[in-house]
Amino acid sequence: PGQHQPYFPSPAPGQAPGPAAAAPAQVQAAAAAAVKAHHHQHSQHPQQQLDIEPDRPIGYGAFGVVWSVTDPRDGKRVALKKMPNVFQNLVSCKRVFRELKMLCFFKHDNVLSALDILQPPHIDYFEEIYVVTELMQSDLHKIIVSPQPLSSDHVKVFLYQILRGLKYLHSAGILHRDIKPGNLLVNSNCVLKICDFGLARVEELDESRHMTQEVVTQYYRAPEILMGSRHYSNAIDIWSVGCIFAELLGRRILFQAQSPIQQLDLITDLLGTPSLEAMRTACEGAKAHILRGPHKQPSLPVLYTLSSQATHEAVHLLCRMLVFDPSKRISAKDALAHPYLDEGRLRYHTCMCKCCFSTSTGRVYTSDFEPITNPKFDDTFEKNLSSVRQVKEIIHQFILEQQKGNRVPLCINPQSAAFKSFISSTVAQPSEMPPSPLVWE
């Protein structure tokens, strides 16, 4: 706001970045610490970096704040994610480091990845991490609730890209664990990218090891999680995609309940009462709740009433995703092979993707429309992390090692008009986070 230069010279040591008398005390303190760190950084590398100027906030999540900025190296608009309060405890440190390593690992057009990481200050002042990613104009939630018409082509190309990105993530052994419309970014060309890996983790192959149930926003939460399963697979992401598919067709949330129990009841209203085999991983309290209630017959034909776009092919694929038993739920790979997505694949690779290109003689298509990754994402580094200080030092060194080629490193400009607002931005309040899972016993 009011500042159009992409970057500014650093203030003289000790000089404040503009008047701060009206700012709250905690903001002034944060600003002072950030400026001190900034000055320390500049004194070490006076000619080796550029300042990036915060512009305006574009998103607030449970684990970070995202602002739009201009990259002073090339003038491109990008997104800057601030991960605050990183080193509060060991669990928080590990989660942030995992997300950071994932963002640097991903190489896929439908998965958001890190373009850069801002230079960290001296480790004594290192409290927050700033990640630069591609700037996307909207997300699927905003599109669904907007008055903008969504054609069948829109639905198919969006669903194709979601599953294309998810196939890649699952091939890396990663469960996203919070697939929802707001975490599916969309640009002005309808290219979609999966984002927000704050809850993501590597799939646990040992079924005796318990996994947290505080995952996935309730409306998109798979029945096995609602029923207290201590172990789950990447099938939970497919359930979420099924809910989003139905939402794209009907322009409303498919299972919109006030509580986890009501959520489960809405699911059984549609799918019918599950068999004991389908509930084998559920806790006893959840099974008892289902068995105490009236026996329900499936009402899947109601899916045809979502919209005129709910064709036989669409409903057939949707029913393969919304399966109570996770072992029988379709995989991302098999879903991509469904005939419903043939047109979405054709449209995406004809005029939207980066993997195919046009020549004077016609379109040259890639040999692999839905690539996977090899090797898988390796999370064994987490096993050796034992203290906050240790993780802080490792993350600090990791960021320094990520500087790509001979690109000039970036740091935040404390003279930016939005500087104080940016550094004092907070994450979403607890009320905005996914509700905790039901305690059945």
TrEMBL record:
Residue ranges of the region described as Disordered: 1-25
Pfam families xrefs: Pkinase
Q: How is its activity regulated?
A: Activated by threonine and tyrosine phosphorylation.
Which keywords, in A-to-Z order, does the entry hold? ATP-binding, Cytoplasm, Kinase, Magnesium, Metal-binding, Nucleotide-binding, Nucleus, Phosphoprotein, Serine/threonine-protein kinase, Transcription, Transcription regulation, Transferase, Wnt signaling pathway
Q: GO biological process: any one?
A: Wnt signaling pathway
Query: What's the cofactor?
Result: Mg(2+)
**Natural source organism:** Cuculus canorus
Q: Name one GO cellular component term.
A: cytoplasm
- Would the keyword Transmembrane helix turn up in this protein's UniProt record? no
**Name of the protein described by the UniProt record:** Mitogen-activated protein kinase
Query: Which parts of the sequence bind ATP?
Result: 81
Compartments where found = Cytoplasm; Nucleus
Q: Name one GO molecular function term.
A: protein serine kinase activity
EC numbers on record:
2.7.11.24
Predominantly, its location class is: cytoplasm
Query: What positions does the domain Protein kinase occupy?
Result: 52-341
**UniProt KW Nucleus keyword:** yes
Catalytic reactions on record: L-seryl-[protein] + ATP = O-phospho-L-seryl-[protein] + ADP + H(+); L-threonyl-[protein] + ATP = O-phospho-L-threonyl-[protein] + ADP + H(+)
* SUPFAM superfamilies in UniProt: Protein kinase-like (PK-like)
**Catalytic EC class:** transferase
Starting at the broadest rank, the lineage of the source organism is: Eukaryota, Metazoa, Chordata, Craniata, Vertebrata
Fetch the InterPro entries from UniProt.
Kinase-like_dom_sf (IPR011009), MAP_kinase_CS (IPR003527), MAPK (IPR050117), Prot_kinase_dom (IPR000719), Protein_kinase_ATP_BS (IPR017441), Ser/Thr_kinase_AS (IPR008271)
- According to its UniProt record, which protein family does this protein belong to? Belongs to the protein kinase superfamily. Ser/Thr protein kinase family. MAP kinase subfamily.
